[in-house]
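Notes from the 1:1 (GR / supervisor)

We went over the backlog. Supervisor wanted to see one worked example end to end before approving the batch request, so GR pasted a single chain during the call. The sequence is below; no edits were made to it. Supervisor asked that the structure be written out right there so they could see what the output format looks like.
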Amino acid sequence: MSLLTDEQVMLRDSARGWVKANAPVGAFRKMRDGGNPKGFDDATFKAIAGMGWTGVVIPEAHGGSEFGYRSIGVVLEELGRNVVAAPLIGSAVGAASALALGGTKAQKRDWLPKIADGTAIGALAVDEGPRHAPDRIALAATPKGGGYALSGGKTFVMEGMAADMFVVAARTGGKAGDGTGVTLFLMPAGARGLSRKRRELMDSRGYADLTFGDVEVGADAVIGKAGEGKALLDKVLDRTTAAVAAEQMGLAQQAFETTIDYMKTRVQFGQLIGSFQALQHRAAYLFTALQLARPTIDAALQAIDEDAPDVSELVSLAKATANDVVNYATREMIQLHGGIGMTDAHDAGFYIKRARVLEAAFGNSAYHRERYARLIGA
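Structure output shown during the call:
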């Protein structure tokens, strides 16, 4: 496991202090109860952008700090501890990475500074069915008038209700399942023929389903090279997936700590439940699982920063591990809190709901285990 630099330690401590003081879980509850379709509070996001967290992976030349993916992982873990709702993963990591890695000078100039300062939100539009399947892209982009016309749909688009622009994966050649023929497009949310509908998930964030009705874009909307976007898409998804794993680590860690605190105060049969050996064993097992998960996530984020040759393998290992540990930690949080953990009045429900959505986001455990095995030639 790589150690945090002094700057990353300062970033972590700053993020932790801000989250505790300004974004308690109660703030998320208030946002949820208010029915905000964007899935986050504008004032909270404005404060996050003001601290520079929206520009952590964006190059300095385009308004960011270029602090790296390990650093944005530090921030996301702290936000995950209090289930803070903010469009960082879809916008400041996903869309920003696509533009930074493959965007034209004009695309970077027009959008990266806005994403960095929080005045614009981007989103990745990749999946088209109930499961993450980037190899099965079928959304058609056919040549038209020197550009392209897109027809089809995308679903479960993270930050889709708030997005000002989308990075859309479409097919300009071949058929679903082919390794070639995929092209990434930059598309403003107000493009004619593009519509979106809120997809309500249990974590109360702003997901959307998109419908493309012969949406016309120019050739200058292509990110990277037409028909050769699969490699770029894989890099973008690796970065976004690692960011999800970092938030999952925060969720799991806080679920564990909250549960331990409860075990130290809850009295049953005249004794603190933390004194029961069976429950101590469960807590010890969860602690061990957390210690094993953290290095896999750290390694994936560090590999991205170092442009290591095994980034994809490490990302899939990290996501599969994070999926498992956040599933276990949030289930234990519910069970060890007993009846109160089942009620909406307790915060435990927010953790397990967010955990379940992130487990499926950008690939569940089965997907990433199969991918990992394939990548290492097993």
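Supervisor's comment: The radius of gyration is 21 Å.
Batch request approved.
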